[in-house]
Amino acid sequence: MHESKLHSQGKVLFLNKDYIAEFVYGGVDGAITTFAVVAGAEGANLGITVVIILGIANLIADGFSMSVGNFFSTKAERDLYEKHKEVEYWEIENLREKEVAEIREIYSAKGFKGELLEKVVAVIIADKDVWVDTMMKEELEMVKGEKTPYKTAGVTFFSFLLVGSVPLLSYFFAGTTQGNDQQLFIYSCVLTAIALGLVGSLKSKVTEKNMLLGIVETVLLGGLAAILAYFVGDILESFLL
């Protein structure tokens, strides 16, 4: 138990392992959506100032929206767990024999028989908290998550802003570089590909898949989103501007 707890509290880089998924998906979404905005604005030839304005607006609005959605999703899971837990306590108090029979059935299905089965049942039902915890895991297949709604939302928003700002870096420093809008866009493409590659490698740790595959998949998805946005912006610019 102690070893398991230490393992769950480990870190990858500066992140608690429990929240890597939120960082990864917040970062991927932030980079891809912001890069798509940049590409769309470039396709429409809207200029550096507009690119920055649209990019920052996307970072704040979409990042906040995603973190709020993550907050309510995590909170709903925890609330559902607590609701079912209350029901189990009520059933133990009011439908005791039925609940005892369910415990016996559960462990009988696991191969326990005779006197050993009865001893296991007796140990479990001797403590209401253990009893309820057993019913939650074995009957309902529900385990209370360690993640809190505020931390999941915070990590998601932070990651969205951090990684999502990468496609805008070349435009932020446009005044200190020599080059036109097209060159700035190329710099943005390179920086975004690097950022997506790094997040993709981190994603492979979450999904436990091949790291190279995770990097290629993430970069390709970002590139596809950018290509679509660029040509949509180019088409709209030809019709509307």
UniProtKB/TrEMBL annotation:
List residues traversing the bilayer: 20-41, 47-72, 152-172, 184-202, 211-232
Q: Which InterPro entries match?
A: Ccc1_fam
Q: Enumerate the subcellular locations listed in this protein's record, separating them with semicolons.
A: Endomembrane system
Q: What is this protein called?
A: VIT1/CCC1 transporter family protein
- Key word Metal-binding present in the record? no
Q: Which UniProt keywords apply?
A: Membrane, Transmembrane, Transmembrane helix
Q: What is the lineage of its organism?
A: Bacteria, Pseudomonadati, Bacteroidota, Flavobacteriia, Flavobacteriales
Q: What is this entry's stated membrane topology?
A: Multi-pass membrane protein
